[in-house]
Amino acid sequence: MTTYLDPTDATAVALFGRQFAGPLTMLNLLRLREVADYTGFPELAPQNSISGHEAYDRYIAHTLPYLEATGGELMYLGDGGDYFIGPEGEGWDVAMLVRQASVEDFIAFATNEAYLAGVGHRTAAVWDSRILPLADRNLER
Fold first, then answer.
1. Any idea what DSSP says for residue 119?
2. Most buried pick, 45, 61, 89, 101, via CB within 10 A?
3. The domain containing residue 72 runs over which residues?
4. Cβ atoms within 10 A of the Cβ of 33, count?
5. pLDDT, tens digit (0-9, with 9 covering 90-100), for 85-112
6. Residue 3 · residue 128 · CB < 8 Å
7. In CATH, what number is assigned to the domain containing residue 120?
């Protein structure tokens, strides 16, 4: 099974290619490690082992000020489980919706050095992820 943790150059180009004209919402689906793996980020590692959920909560606490400083917001955060419609025995541990006013604001957030200093909590927590950028769709009634 292939897992996904970070964007690639190709997915970054595709994001810009969509030419968002206004806000975007990122749908995040996450599978978390049972025990967080801070191997690549010993400077962020807690003294005692913690769960992937605990490490992801640390990531969120670190991230929110930088997200909000660029006009972004955490719209939804919820614990998941197995699919209601989808493959039996599969699902996601966490679902999250993050909104930014523009792609440029998202890039400003995602490239902020102070934000990046804590991204190791996410890496330690997440085993697999999907992030789907969503454009607003206005329905006429």
1. T
2. 45
3. 23-134
4. 18
5. 999 999 999 999 999 999 999 999 999 9
6. yes
7. 3.30.70.100
